[in-house]
Amino acid sequence: MNKRSIVFAITLLLALPLRAQNISAKAREIHNSAIVIDTHADTPQRFLDENYDIGSTDPKDPGHISLDKARADNLGAEFFSIWVDPETNHGHFARHTLDLIDSVYEQAARHPDRMMMAFSVADIERVHREHKLAALLGIEGGHSIENDVRLLRDFYRLGVRYMTLSWSNTNEWADSSGDIDNPKVEHHNGLTDGGKQIVLEMNRLGMLVDISHVADKTFYDAIAASKAPIIASHSSARALSNHPRNMTDDMLRAIAKNGGVVQVNFYSAFIDENYRKADEAQAKDRDAAVKTYTDQLKAAGKAVTYLDSERIEREWNAKLPRPPLSSLIDHIDHIAKVAGIDHVGLGSDFDGVSGATPQGIDSAADLPKITQALLDRGYSADDIRKILGGNLLRVFRDAERVSREMQAAK
Ligand SMILES: [Zn+2]
User: Fold this and answer.
1) Burial of 302 by CB count in 10 Å (0-12 exposed, 13-18 middle, 19+ buried)?
2) Distance, CA 37 to ligand 1 centroid (Å)?
3) How many CA atoms lie within 13 A of 20 on its CB side?
4) 25: CA distance to ligand 1 center in Å?
5) 135 sits in which H/E element
6) Please, what is the average pLDDT of the chain?
7) Could you report the per-residue pLDDT of 96-112, keeping only the tens digit for each?
8) CA 83 to centroid of ligand 1, rounded, Å
9) Which of 11, 49, 95, 149 has the largest CB neighbor count within 10 A?
10) How far apart are CA 132 and CA 74, in angstroms?
């Protein structure tokens, strides 16, 4: 054992009492033999607006992601979400995108011994071998490119490896599920021709096409346009929780045919129908409370950030009973049955759901509980490793191959 391995072993042992409960030796072994990949965490909002340090060891910190929490869970790679709130960043989407990208690089620069930027499958594998967290970037919402394919290419060059075609807002080339029923919003019946060209340019660059958040028609248009397998970076199953952010069984089968992967979102309203209904019932009052609070801040001349509304949402979410962990496992199970075991993974939405995660999942350190639950349901070690990250690596590798082929063909 070299010095680093000893330090690593001691760190692991110290962390054990906190998290060893109910995780069998077998589950632990499977979990630690996997490259665990989570494809969606909103932590960059904290890096930028709160000056949060991912090296934080504050036991009271309510955040889902820290280097300690990632290490406790053997988290190999995290796709940090570059999400630009369209409400508060009007006129400078791209600049705010750059600020958020910078915030992730700055964290990696601050902790070079434990965290490293990664841009490819080979990077993820290498960083994992070095027992560091591989940090990747995913843009959440096509509005970030300001209708300029050159900006898309620039973001790729800065390391962005997936882009969600839309966030909850319809942009100029892709309809969103978030406002598809709003008659005041101009829609396009899915992806415009320009939107299809953006998908092809993403294929050529080697940037994964992410269809979480898009309207159903946009999903089918993206599947038809894309030459590479696509991902849903953070979506669950609509058959179990009837939310437009979730995927229907027909969509799950289409993703399977495309060779892509659905990364299950942990958000309570997406994984548990009872919670979703309770959340919907209080949505109007909660949104009013958020507005009152943020209006007060604005009146006082303060800049309002996502974290301000998050604070109020967290209080409202805490009023609802948390769903059991089995609700989350049901979604993994359902997608594995309908789409197949090769088409399901994890896309937590950590730090983006105002505390609304199922019982037992309080941070990235709790991911081994998912491995245990899958083991309890009879999943094999190989299948569990696919879910934990193997499937995402396969899709990423395929996208890299398609990119090389398209560039060679020119
Ligand atoms: Zn999202």
Assistant:
1) exposed
2) 17
3) 7
4) 34
5) strand 133-140
6) 94
7) 999 999 999 999 999 99
8) 8
9) 49
10) 9
Centre of ligand 1 to C-alpha 231, Å, is: 13
Q: Which two three-digit tokens encode residue 264?
A: 């299950």
Arithmetic mean of pLDDT, 221-245: 98
CA end-to-end distance (rounded Å), the chain: 50
Q: How confident is the model at residue 4 (pLDDT cuts 50, 70, 90)?
A: low
C-alpha of residue 407 to centroid of ligand 1, in Å: 31
**Res 19: pLDDT:** 47
Ligand 1: distance of its center to the CA of 303 in Å? 22
From ligand 1's centre to the CA of 197, what distance in Å? 23
Nearest to 79 by CA among 173, 198, 195, 207: 207
Q: Please tell me the distance between residue 263's alpha carbon and the centre of ligand 1 in angstroms.
A: 12
Question: Which burial class, exposed, middle or buried, applies to 183 when counting CB atoms under 10 A from its CB (0-12, 13-18, 19+)?
Answer: exposed
pLDDT confidence of residue 11: 53
**CA 384 – ligand 1 centroid, Å:** 25
- CA 255/CA 228 separation, integer angstroms: 11
User: Residue 187 and residue 218: Cα distance in Å, rounded?
Assistant: 11
Reported as a single tens digit per residue, the pLDDT across 172-188 is: 999 999 999 999 999 99
Q: Which residues pair with 38 in a beta bridge?
A: 78, 346
Residue 212 alpha carbon to ligand 1 centre in Å: 7
- Beta-carbon count within 10 A of 314 CB: 15
How close is the Cα of 213 to the center of ligand 1, in Å? 7
Structure tokens that stand for 228 in this block: 């590479």
- What DSSP character marks residue 90? T
